[in-house]
Amino acid sequence: MLSENDLKILKAILQGHVDPQSIAGDLNMKVEAARAAADALAEKGLIRVNKSVDELFALTEEGRGYAERGLPERAMLLSIGQGMPVSDLRDPAQKIGFGWLRKKGWATIENGMVRPAGEAAIGKDEEVMAALLAGPKSGSELDRKGLADLKSRGLVTASKRKDWRYEITEEGKKAASSAVGAAAAMEMPPLSAEMIKSGEWQEKDGALYLNYRGATFSPRPYDVTVAADRIYPGKKHPYQRLIDFMREVMLEMGFVEIKGQIVQSSFWNFDALFQPQDHPAREMQDTFYLDSLAEIPDYVKVKEMHERGGDVGSTGWGGCWNPEVARQEVLRTHTTGLTIKYLSEHRTPPVKVFGIDRVYRREAIDATHTPEFEQLEGVVMDRDVTFSHLLGILKEFYGKVGFEEVRFRPGYFPYTEPSVEPEVFIDGLGWVELGGAGVFRREVTAPFGIEHPVLAWGLGISRVAMLKLGLKDLRLLYQSDMQWLREMPVSIKL
């Protein structure tokens, strides 16, 4: 049986409103509500939903400036006149313009002189820029080559646009036809004061009836003894609630949150943390490598530290440190790389920051492992902080998270010394390792001019979630298991 809302959606689609935005505008409702109602009709087989993803392009700030003023090569062409010595090209904008002049065949070099070559017709890239000046457009509306040229120059940005289109099925047409006919015959107007005053409401056999335009309507009967359907209220995902809770804990402890890019150079992800270039964790079977290379900062001190130990009394790892290996880009394997990069740029104490974000490792998917998960990282850099301060911070942190019993056992990590692995006591499980911590080695901090001790720790949030939410399968955190999500209470004691 179709509800009143179902009938409205079907009417709108029959009238030519075939996308969520159009339906929402016609029925004066939110787009999300229109989409949800249409999805429900699709589950009943009454409509088909055709989804597509389109790429929208827009001009960057630089691109908009060129669209209004003209590309550098166009301005360069005007400035050279009949010819200009190559030696006069000193301005960076001129050099950019000169490069594109040659690429487009608008100019040649003869005897050290840049000269115009033929007619410089309006190019496809300029046509695309002119079109985008009016606003973002789909890639299908734009010339491919012109768009590719602008993308290579960083003058346009791309974003995804999802499009829904609805089509009524044969079953939907039958249901809509009968429902529309029934509704037309039984549609009752809203009750007004005038109707009551006019006597259109009449009592007959102890019941009220409304006579309206020759039709008779009776109030809808309700059985107040029938149990209502269970309502599942909207609520935040339990895993997201845990992440937000842990973020609040860090903020309450006086930490400042930092963010970083998912794609990192091997330099910041590994080398800056004094992880040798032949370390097993850097192998392809453990790390997601990309085909691209990144720019890296001055690496002389890092190279010296890896090869010979610098001037901190270390022997280093020996061998030959390769900058090309450091340039390889990876999906970050931890958030520690973000903190060392931040510390390299903020060397004046005190520094008290944390990161909480997703990281990626090549893991076989099973009940306790996924290739992507969330990690929390915290560091403190200050004068005279010690290992004892670290243990105190960790005990305070785990206590606020809800673990009353905490102990520490010695651990090993390539970039901290001394190192510990915090353990918490869980009823029914005993002592469970929950993260790693330590004091950054001088091999890590010295190359970046960090002169004061750095206390650091990190933990996988998904492991905390399994303990707090009583899960046996980690995959539930990332799957849309509606039954599990519905049964989870709105408020969880963490």
Descriptive terms for the model:
flat; 8-stranded mixed beta sheet; BirA Bifunctional Protein, domain 2; alpha+beta; 494 residues; 3-stranded antiparallel beta sheet; 19 helices
Annotation, overall tally of beta strands: 20
| CATH architectural arrangement of the domain at 239-487 | 2-Layer Sandwich
Structural class by sheet pairing and helices:
alpha+beta
Oligomeric state = single chain
Proportion of residues in β-strands: 15-25%
**What is the CA-CA span between the terminal residues?**
43 Å
By CATH, the topology of the domain at 239-487 is BirA Bifunctional Protein, domain 2
Q: Mind telling me the CATH class of the domain at 239-487?
A: Alpha Beta
What kind of sheet is the major sheet?
Answer: 8 strands, mixed
Mean pLDDT equals 84
Poorly predicted runs: 181-187
Give the overall shape, derived from the CA principal axes: flat
What does this structure look like?
It is a single chain. The protein is of the alpha+beta class. It has a domain at 239-487: BirA Bifunctional Protein, domain 2 (2-Layer Sandwich), CATH 3.30.930. The protein is 37% helix and 24% strand. The protein contains 19 helices and 20 strands. The protein has helices at residues 4-14, 20-27, 31-43, 61-69, 72-80, 92-104, 124-132, 144-152, 170-186, 193-198, 238-252, 266-269, 300-308, 323-327, 336-345, 387-401, 442-445, 461-469, 482-487; strands spanning 47-59, 84-85, 107-110, 113-116, 137-138, 156-168, 201-204, 207-212, 215-217, 256-257, 263-265, 289-293, 328-331, 351-360, 372-381, 406-410, 416-426, 430-433, 436-440, 454-460. Strands 10, 14, 15, 16, 17, 18, 19 and 20 form an eight-stranded mixed sheet that branches. Strand 8 (207-212) and strand 9 form a beta hairpin. It starts with a helix and ends in a 7-residue tail after the last helix. Residues 181-187 have low confidence and may be disordered.
